[in-house]
Amino acid sequence: MTSMNPDILLATPAGQLAELPAESLCRFKLDADAQLAAAKTLNEHLDRALEIRYAERARQLRLATGKDTGIVHFDDGPVRVTADLPKKVEWDARQLAALVRRIADSGEDPAQYVEIGYRVSETKFNAWPAGLQQSFAPARTLRTGKPGFRLALLGEDAV
To answer: Which of 40, 63, 69, 149 could lock 87 by a disulfide, CB 3.0 to 4.6 Å apart?
Structure first.
C-alpha cells in the first residue's frame, strides 16, 4: 500500500493501518490532509457561487414575509432551495454587568432575565499562588481533547 486509495484505506481496519511503515502512514496522512484542504476550498468556492445565485432571491422572500433572518424555501427549476440566514446575536458583557447590578440593586433577581456564567482562564489559574488554586480546585474539572499527531518525513519540509 504505497499510494493513497481512500476506499481501500477506509476498508482497512485502523489496527492494520497502524502496523504499516511510518513512512506510509505519513504519506497517507499528508495526502488526506491535502485532499481535505482541496475539498474545503472547493466547498467554499461553491458556497460563494450559491450565494451569488440565490442570496438576493432569498432576501426578497424574507422581506416579503417581514423578516430579516431565518429560513426561506423556493424552487429553481427542478431544485428545491432552502436558504438559511441565521441570526447571530452578541451581547456587550460590560453593559450586561451594569444592567445586572441595577436589577439586583432594585431588589429583583437578575437570574430571571440574564443567564450568568463563570469562567476562569487556565493561564491565570496556573499563575495563582498554590493556596488560591487549592480553593478553586474543587470547582475545576480537567478533560482532554482528541489526541493529534503531525507527521513529517525526515529530510523533507514539514507540513
So the answer is: 69
Q: Which three cell numbers stand for residue 52?
A: 451569488
Q: What angle do CA 19, 24, 27 make, to 5 degrees?
A: 140
Report residue 87: phi and psi, to 5°: -90, 130
The answer to whether 61 and 72 are in contact (CB under 8 A) is yes
- Per the listing, cell 426578497 goes with 60
Environment class of 17 (CB within 10 Å of its CB; exposed 0-12, middle 13-18, buried 19+): middle
Phi, psi dihedrals of residue 59, rounded to the nearest 5°: -60, -45
Are the C-beta atoms of residues 132 and 120 closer than 8 Å to each other? Answer: no
Q: What is the C-alpha to C-alpha distance for residues 84 and 103, in angstroms, rounded to an integer?
A: 36
For 12, how many CA atoms within 13 A lie in the half-sphere containing its CB? 16
pTM for the full predicted model: 0.69
Do the beta carbons of residue 87 and residue 70 sit within 8 Å?
A: yes
CA 44 remoteness from chain centre: 15
In a 3-state reduction of DSSP, which class is residue 121? coil
